[in-house]
């Protein structure tokens, strides 16, 4: 099965600074994929490379099995700043999409506007932040894409508008089977909507797997600080916190921790993500 997005040794450098480095991953099709990471981790850079807006400094990236610019007709993209012409009406904006895209589904785009209760005659400049986000999503979905890339699409929305945006997004996934890569720093939204996670930190890929697999392989172990090194020799310690005599370790393990000196419990997604975000690997 052809990956939705595949990168090998992908990197992008701005003079001496690497925005993304040694990025190798293969994202499965037909999934809703969360792209997480702190500010400056390389999320926007990765999406810009995948859309062909940037060229790699090192490595390769393929989208739907092809170079990004060859797949552009089958990729929908909502940028973080949602660039829309403020002087146009909603109807005129949808007509521009119809003019620019050979597979444009005008009926679908108008249906999305009706569902969001956005009048077609209204000027884009007079729309609220939530309405502009819905219009940007409708423009991306109107292409009938096979891959939808979303760069922090709900960052500036209130909780109600965020919920409605994500609901419409998931409805479209259910209807069309489009693969979605959702970049966000809002872990609760990603945890609720995404079944596969990619975590960037220090400009590198730290995690890339299904949510279920990641949670299954990580545990929080609490026990005597004096025995932390022994546990670390048997399991990979991702993050450690110490008090005078106790240690709390997030460990990645492929087999159970059987030492009775340690109390073991499943890691939450928040604990897992924050631990990897803090790494300098």
From TrEMBL:
| Keyword tags | ATP-binding, Nucleotide-binding, Transport
Q: Which domain of life is it from?
A: Bacteria
Keyword Transport carried by entry: yes
Instruction: Enumerate the GO terms in the molecular function aspect.
Output: ATP binding
What's a Pfam family this protein contains? ABC_tran
ABC transporter domain spans which residues? 5-227
Check the record and name the InterPro entries matching this protein. Answer: AAA+_ATPase, ABC_transporter-like_ATP-bd, ABC_Transporter_VariousFunc, P-loop_NTPase
Q: What is this protein called?
A: ABC transporter ATP-binding protein
Q: What lineage, starting at the top, does this entry show?
A: Bacteria, Bacillati, Actinomycetota, Actinomycetes, Micromonosporales
